[in-house]
Amino acid sequence: MEFVKMEQSTQSQPTKRKRAGVAKNRKKAWRKHSNIKDVEDFMDDQRMQLRTGGLISEKPDESLFFVDNKHPPQDEGESKKNLEKPLKIDRKLMPDPRIPVARISRTPKSSERPKRKSKLVQRLEEEGKWGPSSTVKRRKLTAALRDSDKAEKDKDDDQKRRECGRAVYDLWGAPVPAKTKTEGTPNEHYLRVTKKTRKQVPKTYYNKTSCFNAVEVVSGGASYNPTFEDHQELIQKAIQVELDMDKKEEKLNRWHRFAKVSRAEMERTSMAEMTEGLFEDGHNPEEEAKDDGDDDVLPSAPVVAERRKTRKQRNKEKQISQQTKKAHAEKAEKIRLHEVYRLRSLKREIKEKEEKIATKIKQKKAKAQEDEGKTKRLGRYKYEELPIPVKLSEHLVGNLRRLKPEGSLIVDRFNNLQKRNMIEPRIWKKGMKPKMKEYEKKTFKEIKLAE
135-154 in b/e burial notation, b at 16+ Cβ within 10 A? Predict the structure, then answer.
């Protein structure tokens, strides 16, 4: 019976159903399904305050608070009870006295580890022989002095490295004499960053592919506040470059002004000029022969039995050809035998030939040495210098704030790589925009047909 009752009680409990979504797009739905319990609780509280003496928010502070100056006597037992207990989370963090401290097994540091002394050292210390004058103490003192010298040397080296980056020099002054390979110092930046010297590099590491610098210093006239003489000198250089370009362009225009004539037409014109006045009728026999030459051409006659060569004729021709070959061989042998008597002339010819070859090799080496480091022709296009960046007198400003830069930095670097034979000269081409293609979609065609 009890089991049945329990089953009935479980069945009688209402099952929780998921609340269906309600649309609140009308006021009726707002009133029906809105939760206004917090508003009702607030109104009930206000009514209770009005019934019990008025609203608390409108009462003055004196009626709500008072200062209690009396100290009621407290028992010792009560004071202990009234002490605030620590929070539960703080009590859990406090150590439990009933649990022993966990033992950490670790090797003590050398400073914490007690130094074990041998019986000999203990005996020497008692006798007073183990002191500052001992060998161990002397060794320690020497090591300390060595470390101090090393630290002082490292400090001096660090100071030198710092000073090398603060060198002051005149950009447009007299050039500083370059150090040779033997006098050169290690890379200061590498030494400053890694605190190490570079490893030995191959001999060809310092060989430059070009005599030009990676960053070339422009003349003093390109400064934002140049002197009058430097500025005028730079303007004259720029004018000379422009004049040379105009001269080349004028030369090209003059060459293209003449009409181009083919070689065949030139020969025909010259022939007409040479034969002018020779033929009064105006008929040229060469032209007529040329025109009638096609009609006179006949195919080769067929071979007939009467024209065939006999065996006797063939043998005769073979004998003549053999005699001719023999005569040529005898002549060549005679010439070879006679060359023995002209050894002097042969030696002279060989010597002249060797001198000519040596002269050519020397000229080639001199030219290669002269062109070494200069800009070479590596690709299809020839290297062209950039125009000199120059500002006119009216565009000069006295400070860097109002200065407008000339040229482009990326173009300058690109041109410098070409000048130093690192990349071949190239021409920057702008991409061609493809034309807009118009077409009708299949769906649009179907709609069009349906209409």
Answer: eeeeeeeeeeeeeeeeeeee
Spell out the residues 6+ positions from residue 404 whose beta carbon is closer than 8 angstroms to its own.
Answer: 395
Contact (CB, 8 A) for 136 and 117: no
Q: Which domain holds residue 189?
A: 141-165+179-207
Is 359 domain-assigned? no
What is the rounded end-to-end Cα distance, in angstroms, of the chain? 82
- Separation between Cα atoms, residue 333 and residue 348, nearest integer Å: 23
DSSP characters for 181-225?
TTTPPP-HHHHHHHSSPPPPPPGGGG--S-SS-SSPPPPGGGSSS
The total number of residues shown for the chain amounts to: 451
User: What distance lies between CA 103 and its chain's CA centroid?
Assistant: 59
Contacts of 231 (CB under 8 A, 6+ apart): 221, 393, 396
**Residue 318: pLDDT over 90:** yes
**What is the rounded distance in angstroms from the CA atom of residue 348 to the CA atom of residue 355?**
10
* Residue 213 and residue 175 in contact, taking contact as beta carbons nearer than 8 Å: no
- Give me the number of domains the chain comprises: 1
Closest to 386 measured CA to CA, from 425, 423, 340, 360: 425
Residue that wins the pLDDT comparison between 189 and 324: 324
Q: What is the pLDDT of residue 365?
A: 92
Q: How far apart are CA 116 and CA 421, in angstroms?
A: 72
Whether 193 maps to a domain, the answer reads: yes
Integer Cα distance of 339 and 333 in angstroms? 10
pTM assigned to the model: 0.38
Distance CA(364)–CA(370), nearest Å, equals 10
Tokens 């040779």 belong to residue = 180
Answer whether residue 199 is part of any domain.
Answer: yes
Mean pLDDT over residues 293-319, rounded?
Answer: 74
Residue 321 lies in a domain: no
